[in-house]
């Protein structure tokens, strides 16, 4: 305890020493047209010392360092850093540019495009602002509460999805959103989500492998973009931009815990969440070279929510969030070769371990061995996940062309273990822990891009073209023999909680993909922009696809802009969806059932006449307006339409008494079977609204925002084939359809107030999560009513370098609607829904900046 106190004392002493070295500065912040920017943030670099501009764009700041540098920013404008040596400081902010350093804002390859005049809707989320003032610690949960079109559920009782949170945009699947890091394609997780209300049957990208402390901003393109970026970009694109700051050290320590209202014991808090991170950037030379590195540790403990006042009592003795430990290291760097060329290197590694509760085996359960567990047992499913990525590239000038050549490698490996378990067919001789096998997905991408701007063609023409080669590998490997084998046909075999993968499940698969694109943006007049993109891709496992996108934007007045897009898109079925095969235990109405998930080309699917998986295709349109009145008020409204054909879904489960495949399932010793198929067409209609306002309030500044997503998803068609033709309700029934629709709640609305006054700031946020409808095992509706959660954070700058924050998320301890645990997917009193099911969370954090 003495060392942290000594460090804190030294920080305070250092801040006090430099206090007297400062000066009083005054100045004015204007926009590019010379108008005052109201409420702009003016911060002394390396400190928490700052202020805001008044209604005339003016500010006064008493600095704390001898040679201060000011960082000036405002929503919708590019930030600036200026040296302040005394006297009057005058700064002009340009519109937020798509080119910050060498990284473009997603959605445009033009170096001259700003966010406000983009033909597609783009959200820019400043992670420094978000992480400073909120209690969420991982990227998924941060975005869940600040971006209305983004949805992520924390799962429990869902096997692998307990350890990897699925996430999506605009109510589509997790694998229908493309994730980029610094503009380069991020590899997906090897996991296929099998349970839960979101991401069922989907693969997706694990955003939580990237620590929030390493991120400068997150850009969310809410528009179809397969013609620009390739597969998966049906719903949109999330671009994570890593930090490039130099000569600045930031560190933080965070701890929080949940109000343990529904525990069986007397414990008042649980789910303790500890996070500690440090980030530092080192400048190299005079040409902008730098190395920026981040180290992050996060540990989350179990929550326990089995003892809830749900109808019909207890289905499980252990139910709640898994225990997870995350260690990440990330790097972003640039090395100048000349004035025209530089090399960039970025990437990182993440090691995650976790354990999650499986369903209880009670003492009289025939899957229990009383000699080992006289009171029954609660199996623990463990995870050991390794994730790594590395990108190396060269950017240079070839005459008037900008060239970008890069290689990008990524890998995700997921290994299962089972503890506190047994193999009942071994009797009292059974081990109690098992290696259950797992899977791995790897990706290597070589890409070449060329961009050129022709300033003399009308009011500017930007042309980009490029090619990409991508290879993907997928492997599924078996567990130890005792984890899957049945040694006594009269008893249940395999490790209870999670049967291991069998040698017959194991597979190694790979495929190649070649793509080429061209896109152009033409400013016909200063008010009118036209843009188009065309992309061709060929996959070795299913063939070729050609997609296009057309966009336009027109400035009706200085304050009002109209924009629209139309595009086609596609998503290649993942190698995991094509090749995954497993036998697992599901609980239906509280009773265990052995289920075979048969791979796409298995004997079972071939007998049914299920065709090979092919790409999903989409048509989408976006029509919107943007308005900016001065520097204090901005509004964007975007309506969208997305039609997806041949969506890859996980079918309903066919039982052993099925007249077509029943005998085959009986021979395989399983009760039910399901598989992947291009079975569903969906149609989404929605509206995104974002309103931001900045105002001086007394001596402080108040930022207010309303952000809403309104969405309606309909299933137009269920397509059957082969020997299942005409059996739509058996193939993809109401229960599975409800899972798809639950990924698209009717609305999510955020209302946020952020007030800054000197060293004090407070954030108050209300989030309304709309109703969700699911279907239980008996075919009855389960209607989760709408809920409003309230978050409150209070922050105070202890010194110029240290800030302390305390607060609560879900301040009023709101829970989802309670249901019979025997009828939910998870065996708890609720299914995974957006708002979460852990109740009130208290947190405190200490942040340092030097």
Description:
With 850 residues, this protein is mainly beta. The chain has two domains: 2-93, Immunoglobulin-like (Sandwich), CATH 2.60.40; 99-849, TonB-dependent receptor, beta-barrel domain (Maltoporin, Chain A). It is built from ten helices and 43 strands. The strands form seven sheets. It has a 22-stranded antiparallel beta barrel. It has a five-stranded mixed beta sheet with strand order 10-15-16-13-14. A four-stranded antiparallel beta sheet has the order 3-2-5-6, with no helix packed on it. Strand 18 and strand 19 form a beta hairpin. It is globular, with a radius of gyration of 27 Å. Residues 1-20 and 97-104 have low confidence and may be disordered. Belongs to the TonB-dependent receptor family.
Main beta-sheet annotation: 22 strands, antiparallel, barrel
What is the tally of helical segments?
Answer: 10
State the shape.
globular
Tell me the CATH architecture of the largest domain: Beta Barrel
Spans of 5+ residues with little confidence (pLDDT < 50)? 1-20, 97-104
Name the average pLDDT: 86
Measure the end-to-end span: 23 Å
**What is the radius of gyration computed over CA atoms, rounded to a whole number of angstroms?**
27 Å
Fraction of residues in β-strands: over 45%
């Amino acid at each position: 305890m003495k060392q942290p106190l000594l460090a804190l004392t030294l920080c305070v002493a250092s801040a006090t020493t430099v206090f007297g070295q400062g000066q009083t500065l005054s100045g004015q912040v204007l926009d590019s047209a010379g108008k005052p920017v109201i409420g702009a943030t003016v911060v002394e670099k390396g400190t928490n010392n700052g202020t805001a501009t008044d209604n005339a764009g003016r500010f006064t700041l008493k600095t704390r360092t001898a040679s201060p540098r000011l960082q000036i920013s405002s929503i919708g404008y590019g930030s600036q850093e200026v040296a302040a040596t005394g006297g009057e400081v005058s700064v002009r902010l340009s519109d937020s540019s798509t080119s910050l350093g060498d990284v473009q804002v997603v959605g445009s390859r033009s170096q001259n495009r700003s966010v406000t005049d983009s033909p597609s809707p783009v959200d820019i989320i400043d992670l420094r602002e978000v992480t400073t003032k909120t209690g969420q610690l991982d990227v998924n949960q941060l975005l869940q509460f600040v971006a209305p079109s983004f949805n992520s559920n924390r799962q429990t009782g869902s096997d692998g999805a307990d350890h990897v949170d699925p996430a999506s945009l605009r109510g589509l699947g997790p694998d229908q959103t493309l994730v980029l890091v610094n503009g380069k394609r991020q590899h997906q997780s090897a996991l296929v989500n099998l349970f839960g209300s979101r991401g069922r049957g989907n693969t997706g990208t694990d955003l939580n492998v990237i620590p929030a402390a390493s991120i400068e901003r997150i850009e969310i393109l809410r528009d179809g973009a397969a013609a620009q970026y390739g597969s998966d970009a049906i719903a949109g694109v999330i671009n994570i931009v890593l930090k490039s700051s130099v000569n600045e050290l930031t560190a933080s320590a965070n701890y929080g815990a949940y109000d343990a209202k529904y525990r069986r014991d007397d414990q008042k808090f649980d789910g303790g969440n500890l996070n500690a991170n440090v980030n530092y950037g080192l400048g190299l030379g005079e040409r902008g070279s730098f190395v920026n590195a981040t180290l992050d540790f996060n540990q989350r403990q179990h929550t326990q929510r089995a003892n809830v006042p749900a109808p019909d009592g207890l289905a499980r003795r252990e139910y709640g969030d898994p225990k997870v430990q995350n260690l990440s290291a990330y790097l972003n760097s640039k090395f100048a070769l000349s004035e025209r060329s530089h090399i960039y290197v970025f990437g990182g590694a993440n090691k995650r371990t976790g354990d999650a509760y499986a369903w209880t085996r009670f003492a009289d359960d025939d899957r229990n061995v009383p000699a080992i567990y006289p009171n029954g047992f609660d199996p623990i499913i463990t995870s050991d996940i390794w994730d790594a990525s590395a990108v190396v590239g060269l950017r240079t000038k070839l005459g008037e062309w900008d060239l970008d050549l890069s290689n990008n490698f990524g890998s995700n490996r997921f290994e299962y273990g089972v503890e506190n378990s047994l193999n009942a067919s071994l009797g009292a001789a059974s081990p109690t822990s098992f290696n259950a096998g797992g899977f791995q997905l790897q990706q290597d991408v070589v890409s070449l891009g060329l961009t050129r701007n022709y300033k003399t063609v009308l009011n500017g023409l930007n042309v980009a073209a490029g090619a990409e080669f991508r290879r993907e590998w997928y492997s599924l490997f078996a567990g130890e023999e005792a984890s899957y084998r049945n040694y006594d046909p009269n008893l249940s075999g395999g490790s209870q909680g999670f049967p291991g993968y069998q040698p017959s499940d194991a597979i190694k698969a790979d495929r190649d993909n070649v793509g080429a694109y061209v896109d152009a943006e033409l400013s016909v007049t200063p008010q009118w922009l036209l843009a188009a993109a065309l992309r061709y891709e060929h996959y070795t496992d299913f063939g070729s696809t050609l997609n296009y996108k057309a966009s336009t934007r027109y400035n009706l007045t200085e304050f009002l802009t109209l924009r629209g897009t139309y595009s086609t898109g596609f998503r290649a079925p993942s190698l995991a969806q094509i090749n995954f095969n497993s036998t697992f235990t599901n609980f239906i109405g509280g009773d265990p059932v052995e289920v075979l998930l048969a791979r796409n080309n298995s004997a079972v699917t071939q007998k049914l006449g299920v065709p090979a998986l092919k790409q999903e295709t989409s048509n989408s349109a976006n029509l919107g307006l943007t308005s900016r009145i001065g520097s204090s008020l901005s509004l964007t409204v975007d309506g969208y339409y997305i039609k997806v054909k041949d969506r890859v879904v996980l079918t309903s489960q066919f039982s052993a008494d099925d007249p077509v495949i029943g005998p085959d399932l009986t021979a395989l010793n399983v009760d039910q079977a399901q598989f992947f198929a291009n079975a569903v067409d969906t149609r989404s209609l929605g509206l995104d609204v974002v309103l931001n306002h900045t105002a001086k309030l007394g001596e402080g500044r108040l930022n207010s925002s309303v952000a809403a997503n309104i969405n309606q998803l309909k299933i137009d068609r269920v397509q059957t084939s082969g020997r299942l033709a005409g059996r739509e309700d058996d193939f993809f029934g109401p229960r599975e359809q409800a899972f798809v629709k639950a990924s698209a709640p009717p609305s999510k609305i955020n209302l946020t107030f952020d007030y800054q006054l000197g060293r004090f700031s407070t954030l108050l946020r209300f989030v309304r999560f709309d109703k969700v409808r699911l279907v239980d095992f008996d075919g009855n509706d389960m209607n989760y009513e709408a809920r409003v959660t309230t978050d409150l954070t209070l922050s105070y700058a202890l010194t110029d370098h240290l800030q302390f924050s305390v607060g609560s998320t879900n301040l009023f301890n709101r829970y989802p609607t309670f249901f019979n645990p025997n009828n939910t997917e998870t065996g708890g009193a609720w299914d995974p829904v957006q708002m979460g099911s852990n109740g009130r969370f208290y947190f405190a954090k200490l942040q340092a900046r030097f």
